[in-house]
Amino acid sequence: MTDATLPADHVHWQEAVIERVERQTAGVKSFLLRPQDWRSFRAGQHLDVRLTAPDGYQVQRSYSVASAPELEGLYELVVERLEDGEVSPFFHDVAEVGDVIEIRGPIGGHFAWGPEDGGPLLLVGGGSGVAPLMSILRHRAAVGGEISTILLYAARTWDDVIFREELIARDAAEADFTLLLSLSRDTARRPQDVGRRVDAPLLEDTLARLGAAPRLIFVCGSNAFVEAVTGHLLDLGLDPQTIRTERFGG
Description:
Oligomer: single chain
Number of helices: 5
Helix content: 10-25%
Strand content: 25-35%
CATH class of the largest domain: Alpha Beta
Structural class: alpha/beta
Shape: globular
Distance between the termini: 33 Å
Order of helices and strands: EEEEEHEEHEHEHEHE
């Protein structure tokens, strides 16, 4: 077994330097981390992050890796600022390029994709839940670009769409990739997008665009978002064995 497939408590902690910080939206930043010992991983896996206060108090959180395995030497994490969080305010208000943090991983086996898993793929993300789906999209473009894939991405507004410019560019450049945006508090800016929440009719229309039954479906977002989307998919007759979920927070 490799570190990428071992249980978390069998993977060692190590230091990583913050090499670059990129603002994605008003409340979301990307952090490019260079660890002492970089390991390849499966697209969709996550890192554990541990912070230690001067008095010894420690706090730990998990963040999906948004970069693809092809970005050797670096891991990209997407951190949304949560006012009541213990870790995200540190990243947004304190952390700077050159700072050192502790990480462990990449970890996780269920919510992961490689070209050997095939397609078509349906990716459904809510908010910062797009992070592991970006890793899958980027990896797919590098090693399996012919696999038909749709990303249905739910955000509050146009300005809340994380990786917006990259996603729109991929939509235009990659023949077998389609981006659909569901904006719950904004009007659609493109003909293929909608100004409402993800619901059963929207998922049904998305599946029709895919053309063939998806081999795998990846759903990532808040608990409520994942529960709602998964319920709709099951009601539409999708095989539960094809649905993989990752969720966070309340």
